[in-house]
Amino acid sequence: xxxxxxxxxxxxxxxxxxxxxxxxxxxxxxxxxxxxxxxxxxxxxxxxxxxxxxxxxxxxxxxxxxxxxxxxxxxxxxxxxxxxxxxxxxxxxxxxxxxxxxxxxxxxxxxxxxxxxxxxxxxxxxxxxxxxxxxxxxxxxxxxxxxxxxxxxxxxxxxxxxxxxxxxxxxxxxxxxxxxxxxxxxxxxxxxxxxxxxxxx
Length: 201
What we know:
The structure is a single chain. With 201 residues, this protein is α+β, with helices and mostly antiparallel strands. It folds into 2 domains: 3-62, no CATH class; 67-197, 2-Layer Sandwich (Beta Polymerase, domain 2). The chain is built from 8 helices and 6 strands; from the N terminus they run H-H-H-H-E-H-E-H-E-E-E-H-E-H. The protein has helices at residues 3-22, 26-36, 48-62, 67-84, 95-98, 118-125, 171-174, 188-197, and strands at residues 91-93, 107-113, 131-136, 142-152, 157-167, 185-186. The chain has a 6-stranded mixed β-sheet with strand order 3-4-5-2-1-6. The longest helix has 20 residues, at 3-22. The relative contact order is 0.13.
């Protein structure tokens, strides 16, 4: 391994610890790790696949006794919201989908709506207090996102839930696999299948 590869691996490991212990997203964790390590501004950041591999290694080493139950609780919470929002074709993504979530993780759902305002109206009808903002969605394009806290009795604390609002026509492209051939998101049925394949915590 070259010195540059070793440095990239170190950066990824630092970022992974921040993801798990502080609940940072990958981008924020990589930038924070870069700063904490005091590296030159031009130092290349590791890709998300390497960070995810380090997250899995960190979880196996330090949280193997608690993470599976926390992941299961968050997946059940995601399922409840996917059932409530079924008309908007919800797909779960992020750590809850890929299996690296802990109690510090939020639930990220991507909705594919005929009318972009319909999901917002649904939350209002269900008296859910939310905050609207714009963040990068598919292909790095900014999309409207509705964020709120949802009780998670199994974990004994509220969990952040984020609904990313996409146009219905974007669903086909969203189902394309990632760079390593893995699905980047899944609908309710796909999430249930993942849960059934994993051992009960």
